[in-house]
């Protein structure tokens, strides 16, 4: 390994606690949606506090569930989140939008009146354009049609809301409730249960939205706090970001904190699984976002391709762009897993070196013979390529800097 960084004992303890945290993802707006392969908010918060200061620029180029930018916003860091998944970007905007009390009252009123109207005897306005494009695939079955109709009834009332912020929050509420009702369920709940969950989740999300608003405004004056806590969400690839003036205008990030797609590991970022392994792109319909493409589009290529050549080519290209927007003080912190770390980790590290990055030694954190920091991840709901060793139950934290010339 190359460069070395040492931290205060207190920062080391907090960071390690965050890495090894097995707590349920909760707090602030983190529970708005269960995005696959999320890392712990405690980990993101500890990394941001350990390696940056208020006002610094934090970047997550594979934003996913927006954990990094939510935590950065509450710690008075300016943050940018990138993701090619438009669903990820919708979720990030929902999680980082500060809502007023008037907004939250309007959303509560809309939800309560909408819940009362979720009756299967009422005629629903069919989402014909979305249906024609396949976004309701596998949710029109005998078991699921009532939930599909409930969503159509609710989405038809979105226009009654008074602002884009209220609409985003309400769509996020419907998205969370529909995910609870449909994703990875063996039995689909009744409409009555859906209505109850909708109101229950509303209460929880309002608490989270208020907590997020309070955290963002926790310093004085509040106006300067919100400016420092600003988050920008961009629906784009990290590859070529060095040519995007919306990002480069802010200079080099102090911290690039992320969890990229995992080599050889099956993670379905853009579909729900319905009653087994039937998949649906319905979350995009609910979020009013367009799906990009098939699974390989979101995962750096087909995980079954021999040698994962596309994956590592994409790694070199994306991190090459990130290296070009970094400077000597930018720290890259990544958490990722492998289907077979014995060959994929060396290949991944080689790709990063080709991209212009070098290893940073973090002696305070190492917990294995290879000098790296590993963590166990119990109860994975997604699985490794069958040809691998099933190593996706362990994750490693990697530290890099831009290579010295």
| N-to-C series of helices and strands | EHHEHEHHHHHHHEHEEEHHHEHEEE
CATH topology of the largest domain: Rossmann fold
Under the CATH scheme, the architecture of the largest domain is 3-Layer(aba) Sandwich
Biggest sheet statistics: 9 strands, mixed
Our estimate of the beta-strand percent is: 5-15%
Count structural domains. 2
In total, the number of strands is 11
Query: Could you estimate the helical fraction of the residues in percent?
Result: 40-55%
Cα gyration radius (Å) = 21 Å
Q: What is the general shape?
A: globular
Question: How would you describe this structure to a colleague?
Answer:
- This protein is an alpha/beta fold.
- It folds into two domains: 3-95 and 222-266 and 303-402, Rossmann fold (3-Layer(aba) Sandwich), CATH 3.40.50; 101-216, no CATH class.
- Helix content is 42%, strand content 12%.
- The protein is built from 15 helices and eleven strands.
- The protein has helices at residues 9-20, 41-51, 67-74, 86-96, 101-116, 128-132, 145-155, 164-182, 191-216, 222-228, 245-248, 282-287, 295-298, 309-325, 341-354; strands at 3-4, 57-60, 78-82, 231-234, 255-258, 272-274, 278-280, 331-337, 357-361, 373-376, 394-402.
- The strands form two sheets. Strands 1, 2, 3, 4, 5, 8, 9, 10 and 11 form a nine-stranded mixed β-sheet that branches. Strands 6-7 form a two-stranded antiparallel sheet.
- Helix 5 (101-116) crosses helix 8 (164-182).
- The chain is globular.
- The two termini are 16 Å apart.
- 46% of the residues are buried.
- The model is unreliable at 382-390 (pLDDT under 50).
